[in-house]
Structure formats: structure tokens, C-alpha cells
Design brief:
alpha/beta, Rossmann fold, Dihydrodipicolinate Reductase, domain 2, ten-stranded mixed sheet, six-stranded parallel sheet, 35% helix, disordered N terminus
Length: 436
Amino acid sequence: MSSDQTRRTFLAQAAAAAGVAAIAGSASASVKPNFTATRSKVAVKPPKAGETLRIGCIGPGGMGTGHCLNTIGLNKAGKEDVQMVAICDVNQVRMGSTAQRINSEQGGEVAQYTDYRELLARDDIHGVYVASPEHWHAKHAIAALMAGKDVYCEKPMTLRLPEALALREVVHANPDRIFQVGTQKMMLPKYIEAKKVVEAGTIGKPIFSQTSYCRNTPSGEWNYYGLDDKWKPGENVDWKAWLGDIPYREWDPKIYARWRRYRDFSTGIIGDLLVHEITPLLMVMENQGWPTKVCASGGHYIDKDMENHDQVNLTINLEGEHTMIVAGSTNNEVGFENMIRGNKGNIYLNSRHCVIRPTRPYVDEVEQETIECADIGNDQDQLRLNWMSCMRSREKALSSVDHATKVMVIVDLATRSMWEGSSFEFDRKTLSVHKL
């Protein structure tokens, strides 16, 4: 097959994938996407032994630029033979700035694209960071997978649950792709050790866990993302392309730069902050199954200019008869103690280590213990390295699509609960959501 034919095949599939993402966003009692994912006709080209990994990035904003520069750092430190070769953004000003930083740190000239499909059409790229805003995650990730690329998708995996289920189907239909979700803390040894403790039955039945992500931002959360008067829609910013499937609205640099504050583009605290805490804790509780019921409360208590809520409190039920409570705030930095309660003992996870303490009347049965855990440095670097290692070995990456979909059930139901004032149930057999 010629390169032109390969490119045409990919662009057709990317267009189909875009349609899938749009369909998946419709509201329904059943959140199962109304399509059947098919295997991509574009073959994966895994790196050969000794070959440099060639990586692209869609959305080199704050987090995307961080991925690019940290990837270069991993190469400089001799931890992985990897190179950033291409970036894509609808904002040419921001993309140009990131390109200068990449070129300065790495040398050479990184390629720049304003259309992500052009980047994905290249057959010399092994993997792609998807670091675009949340409302683009599903479409970009699906298109990249269909283009034969391995994918590292930023958290939250998608904006809405139907999109997560659509992406999950595509990953399952293409098992030769390596797919990683970039959630912080998944590589921390304390959670890996806590999972062993729970599954060994040391604390008895895990019945109740708690975690939080709380901070205090008097100027308004996410307002620290600056505005640039050099941004000119129609000249160097493609505003319509950035909006994607979101109904058109007039250019607003605040929405563009601080989209996490707005409900059409983000779930706010729930999807941006709480997933960092929920995801590793849910990994520890893997044997407790999927979320079945979520109730959330809170409101706009201080930051009344923000559309999304500045205080959220979640109660989550899992299939295995376990309750998780989660708090999120942008107006007070004191959160819950990070811990798991069993009927015989508790696991404390506030420090770097995994601490086990018995509860009465099981003090003679459960031994108090501190499992010392190593300092692994930047855990996000470790997660990036896990993805790259799996790109070479073709083993499944740690932060999987199935696990991220469980998290998205919580994110989606909690968001609905906040806005609609009701609890919601999820039935994983029918992939349906029911308002209680």
C-alpha cells in the first residue's frame, strides 16, 4: 500500500471516529455508545530493538508542554531513548512557544501542526500524548488508536461517561495498541503495597475508605492560567476547531485558557483534581468491583464566578459492599486522612509508607506494621516510563482503560448528582445509568 493510500485510509477512519465521539455524547438512560468499534486497518509499527521512540503531542498547553519537556528529560537522564518529533495545537502562538522550548532542550526542529489528523497520518510516530482539553480527549485518543499509535491519554480519560465507554470499546477492539491513562500517584509504592494487604485479607473485609483533594485558591481556582493578547481567533487561533462538538459561542479567552471552570468543558474539581486520589485508591480496591451508586453534594460557597462547584463531597458505593467518601475543595486546604478501613484493621496512606493498625477487638490478630516504601521521585515520570517500556515490550500498561472507565463512572455520576440534586446508579451489565 502506498503512503498516500495509507494516509487516505487513516483520514477516513479518523472522520468515522470523530462521528463516534459525537454520537457517544448524547444523553440517554443507557450510556452505552451506539456503535460497534472495529479493528483499525492501520497496522501498529512498534519500535524495533534499539530504535528511538518517536513521540507526538496533541495539545501542548500546560500539561502537554510538561509531558514534552519531561520526556526530553528522561532521554537526557539516560532512562529512555526517546524523542519528541511533533506537536499539534489550534493556537499557533502557544504551539510556537512550546516548540522553541523543545528545540532548545532537545535540539533540531520539532514539527508543528494545527490539524491533529495531519500529525497522526505520519507513519514514523510510535506514540502520542493526548493532552488536549477534556472535551477532546475521546476524539483525539480514538483517532490516534485508529491511526496505529500507542496512546498516553491525560486524565480524566474523557469528559463524559458515554465517551469513556466508546473509547474503551476501541481499545478492546485493538488489543495490539498500548493505552495508558496519565493519572498521578498510580506508580506510588504505597498503593501497590496497600493492594497486597487488602487482597491478603490482613485488615479483614475492606468496608470503608476515604480520601480528598483540597486546596485554597483565593483568586479563584484555575484563574492562574494567564491570558495572552497575542491570541487572535481567525488569525492564529482556530476557535471553532477548539470548540469541536460544543455548540458555537463567541470567542472568550477566559473559557479558552480556564476551561476547567466551565461545565460544558470540564467537570471541575471532580474530574481535574479528585481523579488523582480516587484512581489509585480504586486500584487498591480492585477486587471490590465497579461503582454502583454515587451521591454528591456541595455547591458554590466562595468562588461564585466559577460555573463548576468549589466544594464537592462524594459518597460512592462499590459492588463488593464497600463505601468510599471523597471531599474536594478549592477554598480550604485541609482534607481527609487518606485511609482504608477494614472490619479488623485500617491502612493509613497519608505518608510515603503503608501503615497497618489493628482495631479492637482484633489487636491480637492483626499486627501493627509499617511497610517502608521507596521514594521513586517524580511518579508521573515513572508512569511515562511505564508507558514507554510497554511500547517496547507490548505488555499492558499499568493505568488501563478499564480502570479509568470505572473512575469515569464515578466522575460522571458525581457530576450529574451535583447538578441535578439526586443520587445515580450504574448497572455495568447493561451499561445504564438510573436517577434515584
